[in-house]
Amino acid sequence: MNLENNTIGEIVAQDFRAAAIFKKYGIDFCCKGGRTIAEACEKKEINQNQLINELKAIPQGGNENLNVSDWPLDLLANYIVRMHHSYVREKIPYLLQFLDKLCKVHGDRHPELLEINHLFTESAFDLQSHLEKEEQILFPFIEELVKASQNGGKTPVPHFGTVANPIKMMEHEHSAEGDRFEKIATLTDGYTPPADACNTYRVTFAMLQEFEDNLHRHIHLENNILFPKAVALEKQLQ
Predict the structure, then answer these.
(1) Residue 148 and residue 155: Cα distance in Å, rounded?
(2) Where are the transmembrane segments (predicted)?
(3) For the chain: N or C, fewer Cβ within 10 A?
């Protein structure tokens, strides 16, 4: 990996184990993955050499995380739907139910729960709309690009002009979700339950943290791998 010149998103795309190190330093590798390490470290006043040394210490090989960088784009899009879109749809109802319960039982003593619930409810609504747009508009067009590339056919002409247009919208919506979950993480003190937390309280915070981690992986696969490759493929076919 070229740690000095590659963007953070490119580094994580090459080895997802790097994501844990960026997360440790509070560096967004998905929604803001277009920055270099130097830019991110300057913004957060982080010791750049220390961060780079930790990245260099990642063992060569033995990456147990699924490497999807070289997958065909239609396969990657299908994987995102099956693994990440399905996860979002499965977990949202449980989290909404648990957060409502926490607000009723603990809201007086922990008023921050009300804002957490509000933020997650907004996220749940927007994410479900976001997934539909990807599944019904963007991903089918990416599949058409792949077919044209494989069969030597004509480049499809979408009503939205170019694949870069819906991608720009999806990236904007990704950033909004990143900002929301940054606020949720702050309000929960890094998903740390208070001393008087009941089991439901602890389970809910653990689920929220898992949801955020899954969302980061989801956005990373799109922003740093699927989307730039789709733009490049469309240009190649023109």
Answers:
(1) 6
(2) none
(3) C
